[in-house]
Amino acid sequence: AVTWPLVASAQQAAAMPTVGVLWHAGNPSEEQPYFDALIRGFKDLGYVEGRNIRFEHRFPNETPDRFRDMAAEQVALKADAIMTVGNITAPYAKNATTTIPIVFLFVADPVGLKLVDSLARPGGNITGLSILATDLTAKRFELLRDIVPQLSRVALLYNSAEPSAGQYLKEGQTAAAALGLNVMPFELRSLDDMERVFDNMAQAGVQALALGPGGLLFQGRNSLQKLALGRGIPTCGWSRETAAAGLLISYGPDQVEMAHHAPVFVDKILRGTKPADLPVEQPTRFQLVINQKTAKALNLSIPGSFLLRADE
C-alpha cells in the first residue's frame, strides 16, 4: 500500500505527453507575443505544463548548426510531437525524423518547400499552418504605392538562409514589373550587418521597403524600424507586430491568432489523428495596420480613404 502512490505517480509521468517546440530566436521574450499565444492555446484546450503535458522548448537563435542539433535533441527525447515556428525550422525537423509527428507554424510555402505533398493531403508525418508570406508581396507593393508619392524604387529585404527567399524574390520581381516599379533586392544574413545594409539602401535612393519573410527580420524588428526611420524609408511588414514595432504599415494574417490555434493540431495528434490526415490550414483574413506616429515622423500624409481600409 505504501508503494501505490509512487507507482501511480510513475504511471502518470509516463503517460504525460512531451511536445518539443523548435523556435527560431534566442529566448522566449524574443518570440513574443507568439510564445504566450501558443501556451495559451494549449491551456484553452485543457493542457497545463507539468500536470498533463511537458514542453521541451529550444531556441536556436537563428544559428543553422543549432537548428540541426536542437531538432536532433527533440527526436532523441522521443517527443510525442514536435512543433516548429518559422520557415527555417520546419525543414530541420523534417530531416531529423520521419516518424514523430511535426506541426509547423508560419511557413510561407509548404508545398514549394517540399514539406508536404499537397495542402489537402500532406502525406508523411508533417502538417500545420501556412502563412502565405510570399503570395502577398504584390499587395504590399500596392499599399506602399498608395501612400508614398511618386514611388518608383522599392527595396526587398531578405535573408538568403530562409528556404523561401528565392520564391520571395521571384514574386517581388513579378509584382514590381506589373506595377511599373523598379525592385532592388538587399540581402541581410546577420543582425550585425543591418546598419551597413540600410546605408546601402539610402545610397541607392530607395523610396520604400518591403520585408521578406523569416525569423531574423522579426527578431531584429526594433532595430530595423529605427534604421529605416533614420534614413526616411517607409517600410511595410507582414504582421501587426512589425507595425507596432514602428514600421509604417503591415499587411498579413493575424499571427497571434495562428499561434493560439496551432495547438489544435497537436491535440488531435495526441488523440490519435495522423498528420497525413490533417490538411494544412491557410489564413483567410488579413490585417492592414498603419502606424500614424511613424507616418508623421516620415512627413507622410495618409489619405483618408486609406485609413478607412485599415483594421487598426
Protein model, in words:
- The chain is an alpha/beta fold.
- Helices cover 41% and strands 18% of the residues.
- The protein has helices at residues 4-15, 34-44, 64-76, 89-96, 137-147, 165-179, 194-203, 215-219, 221-230, 240-244, 255-261, 263-270, 292-297, 304-309; strands spanning 18-22, 54-58, 81-85, 102-107, 126-130, 153-158, 182-187, 208-211, 235-237, 249-253, 286-290.
- Strand 1 (18-22), helix 2 and strand 2 (54-58) form a beta-alpha-beta unit.
- The protein is elongated, with a radius of gyration of 21 Å.
Keywords:
elongated, 11 strands, 14 helices, alpha/beta, 5-stranded parallel β-sheet, 312 residues, 6-stranded mixed β-sheet
Return the string of H and E elements: HEHEHEHEEHEHEHEHHEHEHHEHH
- Helix tally? 14
Distance between the termini: 62 Å
Q: Which class do the helix and strand fractions yield?
A: alpha/beta
On the 0 to 100 scale, the average pLDDT is 91
Computed Rg? 21 Å
Low-confidence segments, given as residue ranges, are: 6-13
Task: Trace the largest sheet across and list its strands.
Answer: 7-6-8-9-10-11
Bin the helical content.
40-55%
Number of strands: 11
Percent of residues in beta strands: 15-25%
- Main beta sheet: strand number and arrangement? 6 strands, mixed
Give the overall form. Answer: elongated
Topology record:
Layout: H1 4-15, E1 18-22, H2 34-44, E2 54-58, H3 64-76, E3 81-85, H4 89-96, E4 102-107, E5 126-130, H5 137-147, E6 153-158, H6 165-179, E7 182-187, H7 194-203, E8 208-211, H8 215-219, H9 221-230, E9 235-237, H10 240-244, E10 249-253, H11 255-261, H12 263-270, E11 286-290, H13 292-297, H14 304-309
Parallel strand pairs: 1-2, 1-3, 3-4, 4-5, 6-7, 6-8, 8-9, 9-10
Antiparallel strand pairs: 10-11
